[in-house]
Amino acid sequence: MKKIFYCIVASMTFLVSSCDDELTIFPEDSLSVPTFFKTETDFTQAVNGAYVPLRLINDQAKPYLAEMHSDNTYFARNTAFGATDNQEDIADHSIPSDGGITANRWVKQIYEEYYQIVARTNQILTTIDEAEFDETAKANLKGQALFLRAYSYFELAQLFGSVPMHLEPVLDRDGAALPLSSEDELYVQIIEDARAAIGLLPLKSDQEAGRATLGAAQTLLANVYIVREQWSEAETLLKAVVASNEYMLMPNYEDAFSGNSENKNNMESVFEIQYREGAEGLNGNFLYNFLPRPITAEEVGAITGTSNPQPVNGEGNNIPTPDIIDAYEDGDLREDASIMYVTISESFWEDGVYPIIKKYVEPHALHGNHGMNWPVYRYSEVLLFLAEALEEQGKAGEALPYLNEVRTRAGLGEPTGDLSEAIFNERRVELAFENKRWFDLVRTGRAIDVITAHGNKIKANPVDYYYPAGVEPRGNVFTNISERYALPASESSLNPNF
Prior knowledge:
Residues 33-225 form the SusD-like N-terminal domain. It is found in: Cell outer membrane. This is RagB/SusD family nutrient uptake outer membrane protein. There is one protein chain. The chain is 46% helix and 7% strand. The protein has helices at 2-11, 33-36, 40-51, 53-67, 86-91, 105-125, 135-160, 173-176, 183-198, 214-227, 231-243, 286-289, 297-304, 322-327, 333-338, 379-392, 396-409, 419-430, 437-443, 447-460, 489-492, and strands at 73-76, 101-102, 163-164, 180-181, 269-273, 316-320, 339-343, 353-357, 374-378, 487-488. The longest helix is centred in the N-terminal third of the chain and has 26 residues, at 135-160. The N and C termini lie close together (10 Å).
């Protein structure tokens, strides 16, 4: 838990101090909890800091753990590179673990970064009520902190199941080493935080762009209720989001996603991770992580439009599988908006013509530095969540119009067959490459069966899944299929409760 213990110091420009105000004298020329957390500006800076880890999470670890761990994308091998990457283990469901812990770097990163958010929001939430500044501004900032803590624990619960639940700032080593809380215990707190955030946050039209809003908190809590199969509670929240008239589908599917510097937080966006191109350190580079390799500078430049394209080597990640390509119905406009094909001249795989994720391909100025935002919740998902919640309650007639609203934009008519399956399949193509698929497989109880079948197809026909001719899958592929990730070994060495 060392990361949790030190993250406040590392991430914010103040020092964690003793809570004994009567015995401790704080120098007025240095920053500490009592001297920093005073004004609206102080708390605004602190809340800004709580959003920061979301950029690293969605730039790196989460697309591997939530998308490439599913049947939507796979790992593209570069046989000249020769290394076995942590990403490869994630794609192959062969992450080494022992006693419920693992040394996988991306598991470690996502765990630590979500606890960064927890630590920062805990510091805010334990001090903000005593501060004296405008009550409306205070409610907004507190609501954002509650939203971020609820979201972080929701992600941790979905990824790991049981994790330690910190609700107070960590002041010492003993405080960092909490026992694991059960999923049920975590969800009680997640729901409490999300409900509180709903009571504090403003509408999107009254909020600064990019910050958590009432609609985002309602959608988050509805997502929690759907995972918990509390369908009527989810329905009530989702209908409130629809009735708010704060959101609409963009007329064209491809316009739902952020450009490099424009179209951010658009009318379909409920919540998205903010990136900005430039030298301030706010940029992303996830587009580059999703390219097959090795790829020449000229080929990179043709995709990115940068003025200084550079070759990229190593291993390719999040390459769309034949399975997701086959999942699109004939005439579905989303396929061409989501997937494009590129030719990699130095590839070792067949003719080097790969599918890549198109929805994040946007021209930008400099290599490895782009500003496209990452969607967390879009209004189309609100509609699909609502259709699912209604259908699960036997209200198929009410559910169908919400499903059809999404399908109509995609150029499709009414679905055929079982409505529940139609909604599930619609989520796959509508939300492809947005870090939803693995969570959907787990919450619907399909993960083990789907991934087992997926693995069998890869082992039977590896060349269809980007293996060069003559290269066979490793002997341990798809031998560790589990609904939850093992906890990071680096934390277990500091917490005897793991």
